[in-house]
Amino acid sequence: MKSRSLLGLAIGSIVSLVGITAPLLAIPQISVAQPIQIARAPRPLATELRDKPVVVDIYATWCPGCQNIAPTLSMLREQYKGKAHFIVLDVTNRSTTRESEAKARKFGLSEFFSANKSQTSTVAIINPRTGQILKRFHNNPDQNDYSTVLDRAIASMKQR
User: GO molecular function terms here (predicted)?
Assistant: First the structure.
């Protein structure tokens, strides 16, 4: 610490001779880090969803990524009809976003929606019994990626 003070004094003396103003030599302030807010543990989703994996799509009509993955999600809806729940949370405009907030609240997805509503073309596969996100995809049109996670989730839920 003493050598730092002497160095600061020496630099200050040289600077005053050269004519550089003092704010350039300001010693950085040490700040205490703010406490880290730890996210709450996932919670089970609404009772009516707990029998099957839940696929949540953050969607907007103006989103190119959403248009890119729409055919894939449509095929998945057909392939997993009766085996998975599909929920679309539409953030196209203020009105649809408010409706999606209400839907998210109804299904126990409020925290997920709050954290992801600005991430259009995000699709998450969630274990409804625990609320845990099994896999999150962003603008991924590969149907096999989704099927791999869904098949595993369906098999796991049947065992319990």
Answer: isomerase activity; oxidoreductase activity, acting on a sulfur group of donors, disulfide as acceptor
Q: Amino acid identity, residue 51?
A: D
117-140 tens-digit pLDDT = 999 999 999 999 888 999 999 999
Is-contact 90 62, C-beta < 8 A? no
Q: Look up the CATH number of the domain holding residue 118.
A: 3.40.30.10
Task: Name residues whose C-beta falls within 8 Å of residue 57's C-beta, 6 or more positions apart in sequence.
Answer: 66, 69, 73, 86, 87, 88, 89, 122, 123
Query: Which range of residues forms the domain containing residue 64?
Result: 47-159
Domain count, the chain: 1
Q: Tokens standing for 145?
A: 């990626």
Residue 116 lies in a domain: yes
Per-residue tokens: 19: 């004519």
